[in-house]
Structure formats: structure tokens, C-alpha cells
Amino acid sequence: MSDSALFPSFARADLAFERGEGVWLETASGERYLDMMGGIAVNSLGHCHPHLVAALTEQAAKLWHVSNVFAAPHQEKLARRLTETSFADRVFFTNSGAEALECAIKTARRRQFHEGRPERYRLITFEGAFHGRTLATIAAGGQEKYIEGFGPKVDGFDKVDGFDEEKVLAAIGPETAGILIEPIQGEGGIRPVPRAFLAFLRKVCDEQGLSLVFDEVQCGMGRTGRLWAYELSGVEPDILASAKGIGGGFPLGACLATEAAAAGMTPGTHGTTYGGGLLAMAAGNAVLDVILEPDFLEKVRDRGLRLKQKLAAVVDLHPGLFSEVRGEGLMLGLVCRRSPAEVVAAMREQKLLTVGAGGNVVRFLPALVVSDAEIDEAVARTEAAARSLLQAEKGAAA
Fold first, then answer.
1. What is the pLDDT of residue 398?
2. Cα-flanking dihedrals φ and ψ of residue 316, to 5°?
3. Measured distance CA(171)–CA(363) in Å, rounded
């Protein structure tokens, strides 16, 4: 039995950090690690970005919390900026991605109720999806490893295997309220959804009065080199869940929706204690200040291409270890021919931090402010990790 006072629900690495700057983390003993996981796509501006630090410090000195009982000019400012740069007309702020998804699911269901179709409450979801850890979102994701042991699965989700148009049509029934999908699956292995398939989903939803719901918790907020991942396909959703990078490391999520989709969310239908708090809004506005600077997203696209091409060269050098690189912008997956955990561990030995995902994938999710030189260093350390794995393999065979 561990002597830790914490729940044993994380398989934590025996590594702790005391400070950070940009894409670098430092232990108490002074060891520096190159962070290419960014808190799993959370640290969009890197560690201790001066603009984010200043915004939080300024707000912390004035006021922390007042409750959603009162008027919220701090929320109105960020909501307006989000709607002006997206498809949406309305925003509900949350503390996390799972809560943003819960709000999105409720909004899709409530829309049908509001429009006189209360029997419609089910959402179609997709194999490989990950939507959070609440009882509803693990049911939406449908992966048994997250559902097992938590009692009966929350009803209302119909999972489709693959991005198959015929299977989607077959899954739609008289109780279907909408379709929920990640434009790029994150935990599922950095799997971009074909653009034609997203266009098909939009057409089906329009024809059948359903809500198209996008989960952009991991792939949104500049991660793909566009502010919103849906911009890559030109397909706009009715409802969208955002989190992770939106707060730059401060807990913040948001559910965005069109006027029609949000019309049923009248006073009392949904709420939050901490969602939309003053510190969170200060962080969210600071993140947008930087991401919306001229040429910022263009630089993300350029650096994403640089990283992708250089990782592809590593694949070419070591086809026995890796098979491909996939993804968009600074959301890339290196597909491995062995356990991702083994590869992540070898990278950590080179003081390079990455994170695994489904489908034998190692994810690269660095801060959007990563430099060309830091990308080159990350690839050099990836190559060193590959060599160490091959040397260990030869030693074991000898």
C-alpha cells in the first residue's frame, strides 16, 4: 500500500517540476526538460507567459469571485470575442472540458425539448472518441476501459464504428437529437476526421433537424493553426465545446452555440458556481490577446509543418520503430510500432516530455509559442530516444 494521501487513480511518473518558462520545465534540482506535451494541449502560451501572468496578477489583486448571481461584464467581454471569431452567438463558461461537454450535451437535448420534440435526446458518437470523465461523457466516448466499474452506462448515446456515412444514417432514429464528434480525435490517436465526412454530417443534421456538436477541447483554440479546428473543413457546428488551451493553464472551458441551439437554455436550466469566474476570464482574455495577434496563427501553421516534416524524417530513418506522422498544426501524433509508453519513457530519458494516446501514438502538443530552434531540439531528442531503444533491443538480443 502506498503511503500517498492521494487517490491511486493516476500512474504518475516519478518526476516533479518546480518552475517553468516557455516550453521548458525545471525540477527542484535544476534539471531542465523540453516540454512537448504542454500539459496535454493546455499550456497554449507555454509556462509563465508574461502577459498571462500579468493579467492574472492584476485581477487577483482586485477580486476573485462574486457568483453568477450578479451581472458579469468580465464574462461578456470574453464571450463577445469568442462569438466574433466563431460561428456562435452565445457562450456558457465552465471550469473544464468535461463540463463544457456536459453543457453541450444538455444544450443539444434541450433544443429539441424547446422546439417541441422532447422525445429526441440521443446523440450519435464515434469509436475512438474521448469526451471527458463524468458519467455522461464516458458514456458518450463509449470506451469500456473508462466505463467499467461505474455502474450502468448513462443512456442516450449511440456509437458508430468508423467515419461511415451508411452507419450514421442507420443509427439515426426518432429519438436522435444530434451528432457529437471531435474534428480531430485526440486521445483516440490524433485521427483527423475526413472533411467530406464532416460536410456529410452537417447536411444530415440540417435535413433531419439535428444539432451538430463539435468537441474542440483538445484540437481548438489555435492548436491546428486555425483558431477553431472546424475552420479546416469549412463546416460549422451548432454547438461547440472548448477548454484546455483556452485558459492557457488556468481552469476554463466554454460551450459555444448558435442562437437557435441555445434558445432553450433559459434561466434555471443550467448553472455553475465557479464557471466564468473573474480569474478565469482574465486568463481567457489574455490568451486571446496573444493568439489573435497578427500572424500568430500563421506562425503556428509554419512551426507545425516544420515539426511534422522533421518527425517524418525520423520515421524514414527508423521504419522499424515508427510508421507515420499525422495531425494538423501543433497537434501531431507519431505512430509507433511498439508500446507508446516505452517510447515516451525513452524520450523522457532524453529530457523530452511527450504523452501517449490510443492507436500506438505518441502525441506532440507543445505550446503554440514554441520556436524553430526548440522544435529542432525536440526532434534531435526524439532521434536520440529512437537510437537508445534500438541499442537496448540489440543488447537484449545479444
1. 63
2. -65, -35
3. 31
User: What separation in angstroms does the CA of 337 have from each of 6, 122, 230, 361, 380?
Assistant: 34, 37, 30, 9, 20
* Exposed/middle/buried for residue 134 (C-beta within 10 Å: 0-12, 13-18, 19+): middle
* Domain 19-48+294-397, CATH among 3.60.15.10, 3.40.50.1980, 3.20.20.140, 3.90.1150.10: 3.90.1150.10
Q: Which three cell numbers stand for residue 180?
A: 457529437
In sequence order, what are the beta bridge partners of 19? 26
pLDDT (tens digit, 9 = 90+) per residue, 56-86? 999 999 999 999 999 999 999 999 999 999 9
| Residue 207 confidence (pLDDT) | 98
The answer to whether the beta carbons of residues 119 and 175 sit under 8 Å apart is yes
Please say whether the beta carbons of 122 and 154 come within 8 A. Answer: no
Could you tell me the residue ranges of all domains in the chain? 19-48+294-397, 63-291
Q: Residue 218: count other Cβ atoms within 10 Å of its Cβ.
A: 27
CA dist., res. 316 & res. 312, Å (int)? 6
Q: SS3 for 27? A: coil
Provide the 10 A C-beta neighbour count for residue 83: 16
CA 148, 146, 353 angle in degrees (round to 5)?
145
Return the higher-pLDDT residue of 1 and 40: 40
In the predicted structure, residue 1 carries a pLDDT above the cut 90? no
User: Residue 177 class from Cβ within 10 Å (0-12 exposed, 13-18 middle, 19+ buried)?
Assistant: buried
Could you confirm whether domain 63-291 is CATH 3.30.1490.20?
Answer: no
Q: Give yes or no for a contact between 282 and 74, defined as CB atoms under 8 angstroms apart.
A: yes
Encoded amino acid at 238, one letter: D
Query: In this predicted model, what pLDDT tens digit does every residue of 163-176 receive, in sequence order?
Result: 999 999 999 999 99
Residue-wise pLDDT tens digits, 255-265: 999 999 999 99
CA quadruple 250, 84, 274, 271: dihedral positive or negative?
negative
Phi, then psi, of 38 in degrees rounded to 5: 55, 45
Instruction: Decide: helix, strand or coil at residue 323.
Output: strand
